[in-house]
């Protein structure tokens, strides 16, 4: 971690504050995972309804992503950080408040009937999704702003460690408090409040005045074509890869607690996420620095391989050790893939465009989460949880093949970039 010894004291202090805010963010968000599916089920929800509620998270993401990405570039990183972490503090209280209202059937168009509690939970879940649209994008852009260009992957790798650490602490707390939804959810609110205090004292990362002015101009010019930019060469393949991974992640989040209960496997659900976070932590510390020296592509390929192994292991899991192994593979996949794609997007954008570029790319992840819940929930109702995990594994395997063959301007360049440390032809010079 020699990179930190070369930084100015004020910058190091600001990075520590950012890290602490991120730690609270991810702990508060992930701490809901061991209990949320079970909490939704307690209102009489079916697998498909659980999937719909969990997928509603992506409604907040997708709905706010265009506005928030441009807001981050034009108005600053810190305001978006505050919005995101405050949602983490408020959302658990809203989930708990659903139990205060009568749970009555509501008739929707086309003869569809749904319980009022399911609608309220879905609305709360959509609100919860705003958190990532605001915080995660602003955090990635902030660290990219503060990182020396020649050590960008290394610093992003270290600073992204807040995510696996938070996702270890949060689910461990959530799993330990599994017997009490109220106590578990209120604990996540406390984490959100602490994170909000950290975000309040953080300093806005410095950007040249010209860059800020350019960002405002980009906002005016690009607002109508936000979604069309998703199809541009530097963004479309990373976004598609994140769609595959988002589908796998959304499937795991929605159905692992229910799968564990159905299989009657004696394991603390929070421990699966903790093992995942430990694996993610371990590999992030190495992958970021290595990608600066060896190229981003081969590490993205490695991350997709790990994710594929994770989903297939889940599909065939019949014991606690297999579940924990799947968690380790998933953590290694996420720990390799997510920070390296963040570094890749920083390479491919100017400071005035980073919020927009990160937001566009992460839209793929959002969409994957959105579709995973309802589609995989319907498949689970008709067949089994094992099948939905295997389908998710096939999707990430397909993503790997797509990345190897289409990640650059043609097939030879793509293969070299994805497997042999070839040059990124879409990187911005300077």
Question: Characteristics of this structure?
Answer:
1% strand; globular; mainly alpha
| Helix-strand sequence | HHHHHEEHHHHHHHHHHHH
DSSP strand count: 2
- End-to-end gap: 25 Å
Which radius of gyration do the C-alpha atoms yield?
A: 21 Å
Low-confidence stretches: 215-224
Kindly report the average pLDDT value. Answer: 83
Backbone structural class: mainly alpha
Residue fraction in strands: under 5%
- Count of individual helical segments: 17
Written overview of the protein:
The protein is mainly alpha-helical. The protein has 17 helices and two strands. The protein has helices spanning 9-30, 33-41, 47-55, 57-75, 77-97, 116-146, 152-159, 162-176, 181-201, 209-222, 233-263, 269-294, 297-315, 320-347, 354-382, 385-406, 411-419, and strands at residues 105-107, 113-115. The protein has a two-stranded antiparallel sheet. Strand 1 and strand 2 (113-115) form a beta hairpin. Helix 4 (57-75) runs parallel beside helix 6 (116-146). The radius of gyration is 21 Å and the shape is globular. The two termini are 25 Å apart. Residues 215-224 have low confidence and may be disordered.
